[in-house]
Amino acid sequence: MLLEVKDLSLSLKREGKYSKILDQISFKIDKGETVGIVGESGCGKSMTALSLMRLLPDKARLEGTVELEGEKINDFSKRKLQKSRGNQMSMIFQNPLTSLNPLQTVGRQIEESLILHTNMSKRERRARVIQLLDEVGLPRADELIDEYPHQLSGGMRQRIMIAIAMACAPQLLICDEPTTALDVTIQAQILELMNKIKEETQMGIIMITHDMGVVAEVCDRVIVMYAGRVVEEAPVVELFENPKHPYTRGLLNSIPKLGKRKLQLGSIPGTVPTPENMPKGCRFADRCEHAMDICKTTSPQMTQIKENHQTACWLYDEGGNKNGTTRSEKPETALHH
Questions:
Q1: Which of 38, 131, 153, 156 is the most buried (most CB within 10 A)?
Q2: What is the pLDDT of residues 75-119, one digit of tens each?
Q3: Mind listing the domains of the chain with CATH numbers?
């Protein structure tokens, strides 16, 4: 087991009082596995990543445990945590233009991790940076090393971010919307690169995205989040072919399907509740067409549908049998190989 997250909860201080952003998030990741975390904006995906990296405000309250290769990150000192970031675990942030320093060359920014975590000489570090630029598919690496972020295209900057994250060969790579704002050709190249890196290094990858196409392309397993909680978890093919939670079905129904014409794509009415105004029962109840009385009063716990597939929904009991008399339509979008 590479990473194990147990009952992770996060509260942030807003206007003098704490609001719960994440509520008892639990999941596991094996070596060589890519796990997708999906959901609308405001569901807690990025905050989960920042909680794992401990990149949080000083007054943040974090509960639960996070174990990386059997070591509790909770117990890490500030110094050990700094040593772990970039070495054991790395993160690719959403917008490379705002993440890269415009005043430093890309070579210098990749080199920073090597200075911090290795004993390489200056010549060895430069050779390693050029090697990394080659590995992420960038041309003329020996010239590019001395250029600045503004001289590069969006796709090239994103590859620089991957090179920075990969500099010390981490065991865990967290990717926060790594292909946002890239055209589909560059997006495909980035995803292919990440698959290649995973196969070569057997690192574990957390892929945070709202793009179900990205999930289908690179993920082995999917975690669906809604309003700070995990509502469904399943292998990627199982989730696309047999989604259970109404929120998951809503996400899948909102995707256009090749070869099938629709006058209007499916949509989920309403918006994600704010941390200050969370419903008492199921957090999705106000937007769910299948909501029952119990959904509005009692929060559902994770229920095992089948092996490796679980959901938090009152529509199902243990084993995936239907409760109540509501209908459950299968989404039109399916994953085909």
A1: 38
A2: 888 888 888 888 889 998 877 778 899 999 999 999 998 998 889
A3: 3-219 (3.40.50.300), 243-311 (no CATH)
